[in-house]
Specification:
Catalyzes the reversible isomerization-deamination of glucosamine 6-phosphate (GlcN6P) to form fructose 6-phosphate (Fru6P) and ammonium ion. It is built from 7 helices and 10 strands. The protein is α/β, with parallel strands linked by helices and about 240 residues long. Strand 2, helix 2 and strand 3 form a beta-alpha-beta unit. Bound molecules: 2-amino-2-deoxy-6-O-phosphono-alpha-D-glucopyranose (GLP).
Length: about 240
């Protein structure tokens, strides 16, 4: 793994945006795996800025997102569809048909998982997969457990994840307890993985991910087995490495 230790969130966002930009400039028809959460927001802002300056073109780029809450439709303010539109897609020239997220409103869970697996297969290789890191080591919504789940699945979110993500919901809003997520094998099949981590509150888990044993109890630790992982983390997040 290659680790870039940077000073702060701003620098993390810029460095990661540079890595993503390089991929898009060198391969305009690339497939990029995208993530949600607070961490990548600064990256999307930076990419939008460069797009507006005319330095980036997303017209041929294809995207695949990691996950979506079950039960939220794309107009729901807490859905990841809404997040991606608001923080990225609406500001750049992605073609809608080139963007992909799980359908949180699907009635048939198995059919939706099969559909999303097929979307991933049809895209061919993911050239670069962007990942954030949950406080319990989750990537996408692959929560800690006894085993890794390979393909897209519907997961019961852990109490700590529900608690962590509740900060983004307004009072009285029902927080989803289930989500669809891309599986670990699909993530690991990406050619290159870019993990971004910010803040002291992630220092313990980042240390476990990088230096601890590889175990499904810390899902992101499996990244140690991938041959092209770049981690961009700020001082706070690196403080226990
Ligand atoms: C959510 C997402 C993850 C994300 C994680 C961390 O659970 N499903 O993909 O990495 O939150 O979010 P944050 O960056 O806000 O800490």
């Amino acid at each position: 793994m290659k680790l870039y230790q940077v000073n702060d969130y701003q620098e993390m966002s810029r460095k990661a945006a540079n890595i993503i930009s390089a991929k898009i400039i060198l391969k305009p028809q690339c497939v990029i795996g995208l993530a949600t959460g607070s961490t990548p927001i600064g990256i999307y802002k930076q990419l939008i800025e460069w797009y507006k300056k005319g330095d980036l073109d997303f017209s041929e780029v294809k995207s695949i997102n990691l996950d979506e809450y079950k039960g939220l439709d794309e107009n729901h303010k807490q859905s990841y569809h809404y997040f991606m539109n608001k923080n990225f897609f609406y500001h750049v020239n992605f073609k809608k048909e080139n963007t992909n997220l799980p359908n949180g409103m699907a009635d048939n869970i198995d059919a939706e998982c099969d559909r999303y697996n097929q979307v991933i297969t049809n895209l061919g290789e993911i050239d670069l997969q962007l990942l954030g890191l949950g406080h319990n080591g989750h990537i996408g919504f692959n929560e800690p457990g006894e085993e890794y789940k390979n393909g897209t699945h519907c997961v019961a979110l852990s109490e700590s994840t529900i608690e962590a993500n509740s900060r983004l919901f307004e009072e009285g809003e029902v927080i989803p307890k289930y989500a669809f997520t891309m599986g670990i094998r699909s993530i690991l099949k990406a050619k290159k993985i870019l993990l971004v981590v910010s803040g002291k509150d992630k220092a313990d888990i980042l240390n476990q991910v990088l230096n601890g044993p590889v175990t499904p109890k810390v899902p992101a630790s499996i990244l140690q087995f991938h041959n092209d992982v770049t981690v961009v983390a700020d001082k706070g997040a690196c403080s226990k490495i």
